Structure formats: C-alpha cells, structure tokens
Amino acid sequence: xxxxxxxxxxxxxxxxxxxxxxxxxxxxxxxxxxxxxxxxxxxxxxxxxxxxxxxxxxxxxxxxxxxxxxxxxxxxxxxxxxxxxxxxxxxxxxxxxxxxxxxxxxxxxxxxxxxxxxxxxxxxxxxxxxxxxxxxxxxxxxxxxxxxxxxxxxxxxxxxxxxxxxxxxxxxxxxxxxxxxxxxxxxxxxxxxxxxxxxxxxxxxxxxxxxxxxxxxxxxxxxxxxxxxxxxxxxxxxxxxxxxxxxx
Length: 248
Ligand SMILES: Nc1ncnc2c1ncn2[C@@H]1O[C@H](COP(=O)(O)OP(=O)(O)O)[C@@H](O)[C@H]1O
Ligand SMILES: [Mg+2]
Known about the structure:
Radius of gyration: 19 Å
CATH architecture of the largest domain: 2-Layer Sandwich
CATH superfamily of the largest domain: Histidine kinase-like ATPase, C-terminal domain
Structural class: alpha+beta
Number of domains: 2
Strand order of the largest sheet: 1-2-3-5-4
Bound molecules: adenosine-5'-diphosphate, magnesium ion
Low-confidence stretches: 1-21, 187-191, 239-248
Order of helices and strands: HHHHEHEEHEE
Distance between the termini: 26 Å
Number of helices: 6
Number of strands: 5
C-alpha cells in the first residue's frame, strides 16, 4: 500500500501469453499486416452500422427540429455519432484523434473531462510540472486512457467525483484518473463489461516502454495510473497545447 492506502500495481491484467514467434518470422511485417487487417475489420464491421446510426439520428433531429429537451438530446447524440464516424475514418487511415491533432493534448484532455461529466459526476482536471511535447504516440495513448478511465468511473465506480491529473517530469509524464467510488470489486471484468479496456491500455503502455495499472481500495475509490517516458531533451509545447490549470 502507498501513503493513500491504495494497493500497488496489481497482477498484469492481460495474463494470456502470446504464442512464441517463429525464429525467422519478419515481426515488423507481421505486425503491420495484423494492423492492416484490424483497420479493415474496423472499417467493414463498424463503419456501415455507425453511418446508419448517424443517418437515423439526422432524420430524428430534422423531425424534432433539434429543439426542446428531447430534440436537444437527439441533436447532441447526432453530433457525437458524426464525430465517431469521422474518428473511425481516422483510425482506418492511421491518424491520431482529431481533437488531439487540432487542439493539442491538454485541450483534448480538458474537453474529454468536460464531456465525461454528467448529473451526479464531476470531473476535474489538473496539470503539474512543465508540460512539453510528448510525441504523437504518447499523446494518443494518454488521451485514450483519459477516455477509458473516465468511462470506467462512470460505468463501474458509482463515484460522484473524478480527478484527472497529468504530471510532467523531466523524463516522464504520468496520468492519474482517480475517483471516490466503491473501488474495483475484482481486477477482472465485471459481467457485462468487455474487460478489454485496461488490458489494451496496459499493452499499449508497455509498447511505449511505460506502464498502466489500476490501483484500488475497497470502499475508497480507484485510480488508473499510466506512466510513460518522454523523449530526451527539452521540447517546448506547440501552440495547440497551452498549459492548463485545474478546474476542480
Ligand atoms: N474506476 C473504477 N471503479 C471500480 N471498478 C473499476 C474501475 N475501473 C475499472 N474497474 C473494474 O475493472 C474492470 C475492467 O475494466 P475494463 O478493462 O475497462 O473493462 P470494462 O470497462 O469493459 O469492464 C471493470 O469491469 C471493473 O470491474
Ligand atoms: Mg472499460
């Protein structure tokens, strides 16, 4: 346990060993091929369904005129569906999330925190240290982790407060998504959950020579931690990623 009483890193969430590679297999080639297949599958299997959802929401939005409580909700859902369709195209073309590319990491995280808020759940965001350029893959993973972490708080924690923290040091950036809910009941997925979110974050963090884990204390909340190394040397933050101070 650390000073806040949270247990340390749990056992790896992904415990399935990957099959040994053939000694002469061309690993980068196989990895690229696997990613291409994954992108095609995402495109073919999710694309039509999402586009259809977007279209039907557009029709509903037109029918309600986008006004009144229900009309506004529908307009909001339509806009989220449109964003998802666009995001799916970016995944297929191996581009980072649009908001991260356009606004920079800090603004993207701030926006993600705001959209994770709902009645009964406040989400704060706090930055410490000196923010600097992280490189595309680190920024993308941190953003993904904020989406996954805040979605987990909303789905699993029964919390009314969540705090997203980004801490920059000379060599690392650390993301923490903490909540004041009941803590993880078990480290594996609950029935109804996919159990893939944390495992996939953990794998992605390892690929970037970092780590990701969930700390939890029964009845006293949970904390997702993602710690990633930063590239060497000072690299000032580009204009999109202005330093942001806490919102709560
Ligand atoms: N903030 C949290 N509070 C309580 N339990 C959590 C929290 N985050 C994750 N968990 C637990 O960890 C499990 C695995 O999470 P995840 O890998 O994201 O899969 P999923 O969200 O699809 O269930 C969840 O099913 C839940 O039991
Ligand atoms: Mg999840």
